[in-house]
Amino acid sequence: MANSGSADLVIVANRLPVDRVTNPDGSSGWRRSPGGLVTAVEPVMRANDGIWIGWPGTDEDVEPFHDQGMDLVPIALSELEIEEFYEGFANATLWPLYHDVVAKPEFHREWWDAYVRVNRRFAEQAAKCAAEGATVWVHDYQLQLVPQMLRELRPDLRIGFFLHIPFPPAELFQQLPWRRQLLEGLLGADLVGFQLPGAAQNFVRLVRQRVGHKTHRDLVYLPDGRTVRAAAFPISIDAEGFETLARSEEVEKRATEIRDALGNPSKVFLGVDRLDYTKGIYARLRAFAELIADGELDVEDAVFVQVATPSREEVEQYRILRDEIDRLVGRINGDLGRIGRPAISYLHSSYPREEMAALYRCADVMVVTPYRDGMNLVAKEYVACRFDNRGALVLSEFAGAAEELRQAWLVNPYDINGMKSALLEAGRAEDKDVVRRMKAMRKQVMENDVAAWADSFLAELAAVRPDHGKTVRPVKQL
Ligand code: ADP
Ligand code: G6P
């Protein structure tokens, strides 16, 4: 093909795995990008000599570069595109709409126009980089039009799409003025992957109702003779990598240091989230504070460590949330803490993986209570780090991970009393019960890691059109 590139595997995601940052001295550097998408997709890239196309988190033009064994092709977004495409359509329209309308989605036509323009730029860049017959794997809600745009430019490609966040029920999706365009955008892929089977079913039903294509089970038949498959591929983590890290002496030592610094309480509760209104941070901290106020827990003996990395700070809902949580933590510590014993240890920092593993090792109760979450990798990371079979997981029924981690203490995050009971039960559970639950969850996480996820997606993608395209190397083989 005259204008094809050289990569046999192209990952297209809104973010590159590294984010451009300005250091305090004014110089520029790179930092690992936030969120579960990067955690999951990075190991796939390392196993293949592909390239990753994405936004470097800035409006500066950055040349393609090589970072830790990965070829990265940056796409700059202008200030206006950051505002209208990223903060606007992606994070103030689609994000709340796809997460059960936990916050009210905003619909603006100029945001949609920016979404179309930016998606086209990503598609054009992918078309330039992909070799003939290559596999292009497009990721997440920011880029739902890319599959169709790319297919028009390069019909020779094998195109997969994976949605990392929930896909909403038809009743909510229908609110979107551009619902048909988004469905058609996704149908440019050969395989559309979701976290849960229910999401794939929602999608196929919507395609039948709104676009009018014939469907049968998980297949959509297009008028041009192409078949698109929609199926669930629950995402995971590099479970062995986390376990190895957790077993290291340094992490063990650091976990002890953290516990000492907290004053050696008998129970450490832990929450780790991006500061996002879908994560249920406010309600979980209230539940914990009420347990102290009720006398069920004592600040001399129990502490809640909440790590909350600021996220999407220019979006109003996120700013409001940050202020609300800052105020709540101040009030709880002011009312219930004692000198040297805050009820909540609240941190905005972003940590390296070693520090995360040490935190997981030191947490007796891990609290993951989103109102809605595609999967939630933090829950799986906690399980992978608990090779000692200790540690209790309190997990929202509304996180995708709850489908696999059935032995967690499952809670409804809207039910504060239910959460209080679960926190207490998990904190007071007998060793035997904790070990039994953790063993079962560990089996699930260790056997279904991110390599298995990527390999099953790529194998299915190859199977949709077996006669077409090159094969991508399985991640497991490495
Ligand atoms: P989301 O993708 O919505 O942020 P996930 O729980 O699926 O939620 O993924 C979050 C990822 O970000 C995990 O891999 C977790 O380890 C990482 N992470 C979360 N908070 C921090 C932090 N403060 N420092 C470093 N990594 C973090
Ligand atoms: C979630 C989304 C990702 C996103 C990440 C971080 O994991 O599924 O697509 O990259 O959050 O959010 P941000 O807006 O900072 O990229």
Characterise the protein shown here:
By secondary structure, the chain is an alpha/beta fold. It folds into two domains: 7-235 and 451-464, Rossmann fold (3-Layer(aba) Sandwich), CATH 3.40.50; 239-447, 3-Layer(aba) Sandwich (Rossmann fold), CATH 3.40.50. The chain is built from 16 helices and 18 strands. The protein has helices at residues 36-47, 79-98, 109-129, 146-153, 170-173, 179-186, 197-211, 239-247, 249-261, 281-293, 316-336, 353-362, 377-385, 416-428, 431-447, 450-464, and strands at residues 7-15, 18-22, 28-32, 51-55, 65-67, 70-74, 130-139, 158-162, 191-194, 214-216, 219-221, 227-232, 267-274, 302-309, 344-347, 365-368, 392-396, 409-411. A hairpin with a 2-residue loop joins strand 10 and strand 11 (219-221). Residues 14-15, 34-37, 140, 164-165, 311-312 line the site of 6-O-phosphono-alpha-D-glucopyranose.
